[in-house]
Amino acid sequence: MKKTALLFAGAALALSIASAQAATLRMAYDADPVSLDPYEQLSGGTLQLSHMTYDPLVRWDRSLGFEPRLAEKWERIDDNTMRFHLRKGVKFHSGNDLSTKDIAFTFKRLQESPDFKGVFAPFKALNIIDDFTFDMVTNEPFPLILNNMTYLFPMDSAFFTGNDADGKPKDQLVKHGDSFASRNISGTGPYTVSYREQGVKVEFDRNANYWDTKSPGNVDKIILTPIKEAPTRVAALLAGDVDFIAPVPPTDHDRIKSNDNVDLVTMSGTRIITFQMNQDRVEAFKDVRVRQAVNYAINQEGIVAKIMKGFATPAAQFSPKGYLGYNENLKPRFDVKKAQALMKEAGYEKGFNVTMMSPNNRYVNDEKIAQAVVSMLSKINIKVDLKTMPKAQYWPAFDERAADMMLIGWHSDTEDTNNFFEFLSACPNKDTGAGQYNSGNYCNPKVDAMMVKANTITDPAKRAEIMQTMEQVVFDDAGFVPLHWQNLSWGARKGVDIEPIVNGMDFPYLGDLVIKQ
Amino acid sequence: MIAFFVKRFFQAVVVMFVISLISFSIQDNLGDPLRELVGQAVSEEERQALRDEMGLNDPFLVQYVRFASKALQGDLGDSYFFKQPAFDVIMKKLPATLELVFGATVIIVLFSVPIGVYSAINPQSWFSKTVMGLSIIGISVPVFLTAIGLIYLFAIELNWLPSYGRGETTQVWGVWETGLFSADGLKHLILPSFTLASIMLPLFIRLIRSEMMEVLQSEYVKFAWAKGISPRRIYFLHALKNTMLPVITVGGVQIGTMVAYTILTETVFQWPGMGFLFLEAVNRVDTPLIVAYLIIVGAIFVVTNTFVDLIYGLVNPTVKLAGRK
């Protein structure tokens, strides 16, 4: 009896020592995850959750390189095949062991997911060699295998096999409506979900059997509350009600910087904001000189300084710095005189009228940016009739190509240059889906040919050369109007060391977060 | 009395029908729900297939009849976002909103009656004049600004009260999740309640004041003074009772309006009630949830107005309810 009591006392002591270092993180994002199913929706919120509760095979490090996670190492066997070696001894939350069975299971779900199957279309097959080795086979030589593997978060195949209480398969992927996978998690990640009330609160507990014992992370509990209104989110941080918030609106940056109890971390992001000029609707936009004039008339640096309060990076191309296709020669070319001269040369000295549409709740300051562009274009006598609307109404209008100039922001799902071209500037083709978001109908077959070629070259140096040329050609053609890359921002209480765990993709690696006090 | 209720019931049914028809017909103008359900890179064909699957491509009448026949069986459809029956989702959030409205009502009653009566009795005192001046400001300041101001002062600068949310909640009778019975929950309730009350409080102070002043001029009050009845009895028994009649009418209507104002208050304070839920649903084009919310709020309006009519009859016996001869 005494012995048991002593044992308990010892255990209690051990526990209290452990919890002296462990910490709780109260955090607030602008929204909470839509679903617990990592493949229901390809969105920032889903990926943030996946990186907390699952682990990918490889993940991005801060310089856009690859860091091994569940895949320990990999090698190219031939042009179309890459072999992966799985980490051994990894356990799911359920206690099941990770093996290639789970990879195959997850890969199958990826190919069925409406949101993810596009990204995984280049893959022909997944071949299992043994329990810890598998090959990814592509149809053609494919340079972005590792990029795609950052999306492969192995799911617990044993846990998700069978039927739930309603008799529906547990692995069913439902876009609308209830499913087992949207309510249950069994991953390998640093956290499990212990409580969830959608739209109100999600609580995470540290996974006691987490494989990554080298992780410095000491947060054993996370409470995520969505706070939609930016001023309230900032107030909650300043009042000490939460420890960590994202995003921080540009207007509040100074307030957070000037406060001694909180830190602000910002980083240049990879989402490009652009305007497209519809050549099918406006005859004048068929003239390259007019398109160039529009580009010369717009002051990217001014927009960034005045409207974005410095919270963006002025752009002259799709690719942000760090992407293979980033062409460092391309700079914003604001020059009103030149713009006016080009308009005159093209015979549009007196200008013309166009319509413009922009969302007003999708991108940071989207409406104000559009208004600024309207006044800049008036300098070259282009009179703009601007209409702004909430994103829910904007996207159907965008699909109809309802205005002559439309604003769109884009983030490359593969963190690769080619994705921008495929969606935003490729010749629109209903059958292949190319140029799905090219409302300008800009079309240069030469660029398209290079784009297709770049997708089959596995040598990074050669790819970089081609993609940088593509950026140059589209720049010369003035195919669209690049504005800026939106920056990212996080705010945290002093002592919550977020600097090392945040990244340009905006999925903080919270498993590695260290709270000092 | 029964005839009154029957009549009210049929009125309610007509109101719900009209609301459902209107809310159902505006849904096409709200935007495309599919955009909120799928990622940006999903192709148009995929989206069309999903639309077909969800019946969004059917003609308006087909969709409405399908909705109405289910609604008659008590099924208002499933929320796209919550993946649960819209009715259940709203009912789960209803207590939070009602508690907020309750908190604001308590504040309004506690402050408006004494202040209104005092300033009617002493219209020339500096206190009355200050209150009247402040109430003008109170009416004209937007709720959003009031809320941010209160958060800034009491949460950030003084650090007395929490800045957002509902705090700790407890379950009562298994169904009612409430913040009223814990210190933390009550602390969280203070700022949102004052914010919500700030819209109505000035209105009620002014209303009670002017009604009371009018009553104090009436013959029967003069007669009471002449009879030598104590001032307290005159003010609080004879005068106040007659003052309250129009106040109750306005109050009944305003409680309904207050439910509508919860949308703003809840959004700023991240209060997990149904007003915030509604705003989010509009942003996400979660049409089943929007329609269900409008129908339920319509029901709340009908019920509160019925109660007001009943209470009116109790306070003033000369008022007859419809149907009673």
UniProtKB/TrEMBL annotation, chain A:
Look up the signal peptide feature and give its range: 1-22
Residues forming the Solute-binding protein family domain are: 66-430
Keywords in alphabetical order? Signal, Transport
Instruction: Kindly give the CDD domains that the UniProt entry links to this protein.
Output: PBP2_NikA_DppA_OppA_like_2
The biological process GO terms on file are: peptide transport
**Highest taxon listed in the record's lineage:** Bacteria
For this chain, one GO molecular function annotation is:
peptide transmembrane transporter activity
Give GO cellular component annotations, separated by semicolons: ATP-binding cassette (ABC) transporter complex; outer membrane-bounded periplasmic space
Q: Which SUPFAM superfamilies match?
A: Periplasmic binding protein-like II
Give the family from UniProt. Belongs to the bacterial solute-binding protein 5 family.
What's the name of the protein? Peptide/nickel transport system substrate-binding protein
TrEMBL record, chain B:
Residue stretches spanning the membrane: 9-26, 100-121, 133-155, 189-208, 243-264, 290-315
ABC transmembrane type-1 domain: from which residue to which, for each copy?
94-312
Where does the protein principally reside? membrane
Pfam families assigned to the protein according to its UniProt record, in alphabetical order: BPD_transp_1 (PF00528), BPD_transp_1_N (PF19300)
> Which keywords does UniProt give here?
Cell membrane, Membrane, Transmembrane, Transmembrane helix, Transport
Q: Give the subcellular location.
A: Cell membrane
Annotated Gene3D superfamilies: MetI-like (1.10.3720.10)
The way it spans or sits in the membrane comes to: Multi-pass membrane protein
A single GO BP: transmembrane transport
PANTHER family in alphabetical order? ABC TRANSPORTER PERMEASE PROTEIN, DIPEPTIDE TRANSPORT SYSTEM PERMEASE PROTEIN DPPB-RELATED
Q: Into which family does the record put it?
A: Belongs to the binding-protein-dependent transport system permease family.
Q: What is this protein called?
A: Peptide/nickel transport system permease protein
The organism's taxonomy opens as: Bacteria, Pseudomonadati, Pseudomonadota, Gammaproteobacteria, Oceanospirillales
